Amino acid sequence: MASVPLRLRDHAYDVLIGPGVRTSLVEVVRRLGARRAVVVAARPEEWVPDTGVETLLLPARDGERDKTLATVEALCGEFVRFGLTRSDVIVSCGGGTTTDVVGLAAALYHRGVPVVHLPTSLLAQVDASVGGKTAVNLSAGKNLVGAYWQPSAVLCDTDYLSTLPRREMLNGYGEIARAHFIGAPNLRSLPLVDQIAASVRLKARIVEADERDGGLRHILNYGHTLGHALEKATGFGLRHGEAVAIGTVFAGRLAGALGRIDPARVAEHQDVVRSYGLPAALPAETGPADLMRLMRHDKKAISGLAFVLDGPRGAELVDDVPQEAVARALEEMPRTPLAALVDAATTDTARS
Q1: pTM over 0.90
Q2: Beta bridge partners of 54
Q3: What is the DSSP track for 193-221?
């Protein structure tokens, strides 16, 4: 088992990583002093560990369709009916979207109730469950309504991952691949548990330095500006990690076009993404104009288009990137029909 501490000025918690760590939930709940728990689970009941206290189990569905304010409102209504107080605890058990929704509900209910995350997907274990960002989508774009609400513990039980199909594993590898360009460059040859731990350590270090996205934390969005636009443009036909992988390749091409990195570093972006079995081409059905319109809704964009790009000082947020350069880089990206990208993610030999 690996334990990664995350220490902030007024809050601290540990991320436990390894097989069977979900059984630590009883001790976590006891330490918090909670008398009641609500567990919101997008997984079968038998996957949910005992909390040790009176518990309400609420079913959930992973997926962008339920990542809405309506779902948050429905959860809060159930909390009221159960009599949950701010001295109790909320537990999420599911993938990244469930983690986000439950985290936001915990942040808003009674202006904040302790939350513990049991992420059951690779994506949620390396990214969504750590760092305290919670959000839901609006029709205009991804993650536009949210709050910062740090969990009280994160239990990344790797036993959960043995049940995941190949495409869901690739979804998580998209976030691991982008870590190569923001401070964790040598993860490809490591065992999966070590890849998760290294990704979490990187994120914890960044969050400790910049909890609320004032500067350094922007680099965690490497590949995400185009990635979020691709999710929206394809009606979420692309999974988040797949879209981030394509966005990572694009970030390398755009940085090269702006003279920030040399051709070898541009090529490295594609090599890393492909080494994880991830897509590196735009869906053929998406057009530059639509993607640029969607990217203007990105939370980092204050004026014009903004991207996290590699450069002489490493990855950093670059504001007001000329739209001509962005359009040209999009036009020059390779293209593959969306159905072919999905088929490749579903049927290729899984990476071990």
Answers
A1: yes
A2: 36
A3: HHHHHHHHHHHHHHHHH-TTSSSGGGGGG
